[in-house]
Amino acid sequence: MGFDTNQKERDKSLTSRLNTLCENIQNDLSTDPDVLALFYGGSIGKGNQDLYSDIDLRIVVKAEVFETFRKKKKERAENWGDVLFYEDYPWASHSVAHFRNFIKVDSFYYTPKDLQPSLYLKQGTMIVYDPLHIVKEVVKRSNDIHYKLTQEEFEIWRGKFFAHLHEVYRRMNRGEMYYALSSLDMLRWSIAAGWDMEKDRLPNQMREWSKYEGKRSPFEEWQLSLLENWDCDRNPEKIAIVMKSICSEFKTIHKNLSEKLFIKEEPEWVDEIMKMVL
User: Fold this and answer.
1) CATH class belonging to 151-275
2) What radius of gyration, in Å, describes the C-alpha atoms of the chain?
């Protein structure tokens, strides 16, 4: 399974290209006296990168030069290779550079004060330069953090699900099919996030599908099969079938999470919300 293009030969060398780019990054930044630490997150940090992984780069700089680094983040990326284009917000402390070798680098800049213990650091961090042990100490403290579902998070999750469920109906009846399909996708994502919460895993950020499918997915085969079967086009009848199937799985997750939090499930209330559009 894959996207059949004429780029397969190029893709075979992507791992080598990524490694070369990482070497360039490390040689450039580790010799800069204003750079205090350098580490990778994402797939490289976890050690499960593949041909199509990007470079999730984290750079800690001295507080007094942070603003200079932020303003020159695009120019800095040009030290590492031949940049083809950028995804960039000038005011942000991060930038995304797409290189001509088809590798993407997401670079984030921090001051030592900005770097705080987090589940992100616990889940995968590869430190490549940290002479003052700034990152090492924060990662050590991150190991004491554990994800635990809260009632507030649960209520946000189910509220968004109900809102998008109703939105699919509204937009379909307006003939705004792309909007309807976007909300349908959010229903799928909500189920995936719910599966994570059932297993005490931190869900992806909203609308983020990274690693929810494919070889690195944490889901079981029956869950991946459901996601695949919930695919559909602009056909209203098919959309309605998919919505009903998604709602069935939502009820199961809602019941399980209610029990996990020791709160009232209220299945009649859930049915009332769903029957308004199904």
Assistant:
1) mainly alpha
2) 22
